[in-house]
Amino acid sequence: MCKTKSLADIRATVVQIQNISPDVSIISLECPGIASTAKPGNFVNIKVNDATQPLLRRPFSIHNVRGSLIDIMVKSVGRGTTLFCNTPAGSTVKVLGPLGNHFDLGSEPFLTAVLVSGGIGTAPMLFLEKIVVASGKEVINLTGGRTKDELLTQNLTNCRCATDDGSAGFKGTVVELLRNELPELKKKGAIKIFACGPNPMLKALAHFCHEHQLVCDLSLESVMGCGIGICYGCSVEVKDLNGKAEMILLCKEGPVINSELFAN
Length: 264
Ligand SMILES: Cc1cc2nc3c(=O)[nH]c(=O)nc-3n(C[C@H](O)[C@H](O)[C@H](O)COP(=O)(O)OP(=O)(O)OC[C@H]3O[C@@H](n4cnc5c(N)ncnc54)[C@H](O)[C@@H]3O)c2cc1C
Hints:
Blueprint: E1 8-21, E2 24-30, H1 32-37, E3 43-47, E4 58-61, E5 64-66, E6 69-75, H2 79-85, E7 92-99, E8 112-118, H3 125-134, E9 138-145, E10 159-163, E11 170-171, H4 174-186, E12 191-196, H5 199-211, E13 216-219, E14 235-239, E15 245-249, H6 250-253, E16 256-258
Parallel strand pairs: 8-9, 8-12, 9-10, 10-11, 12-13
Antiparallel strand pairs: 1-2, 1-7, 2-6, 3-4, 3-7, 5-6, 13-16, 14-15
The structure holds flavin-adenine dinucleotide.
């Protein structure tokens, strides 16, 4: 997977905030430089206010690109995300990006992209879907949430859902949904899985893909500081294909990794 080539730290205007659930908002930022170079899977590191607290920036996937705007889908889980979701339109935030690597759409041939996501891990899927569809391939979304209210399927097409409590779609995890759907999906010819969600979900998916010899890119999460490989705050242990453990910096060597590195 290629590294991103250009890097900007810009002061971006918050153009619009749309609350799509009690704790999730889509925030649109005017960022022409980032919008023109971003690839699906890249993230941005945002200083959510100009105060000294919170000191560190917060990382967010690029949810969508619309002309000169990037959209960020933010779940309010703590101080930084809550401040960001409450930023008034018209004010500015500092945005560093695009950062990290991106989903690999070129190395292996595939006809259908299966986008498997859980919770706020659905954030990067809209941008990914747009680029895959533009390349003439089919997209199927398998989207999971704890309950119907936690599914974040806005604007995605071809969605099949899973909820832990069965309040919508398949009752069970999104990985179990994939197990259910796999015979049908395989009839479509070569498929590739692209996934983002909580790390335990990604671990289960990595095992599943290993077991079924499916090619899969995972976008992992970790607590992150600088976002550019200086602070080492985002070291994550992965295992290489021989099972040997190694540490990678998720901000530079990720967030997207081949699922085989996470299957052990
Ligand atoms: C590459 C990447 C892309 C991301 N994309 C998105 C996105 O598109 N939308 C979105 O809403 N969130 C995304 N996140 C997660 C988001 O960065 C964290 O939720 C945010 O940093 C929490 O900040 P806070 O100040 O609100 O929470 P804090 O008050 O710092 O923490 C609240 C809780 O979240 C935990 N936490 C903090 N940071 C992370 C983290 N990075 N990963 C896992 N747990 C964390 C803390 O341990 C604590 O339990 C992404 C993270 C990474 C690494």
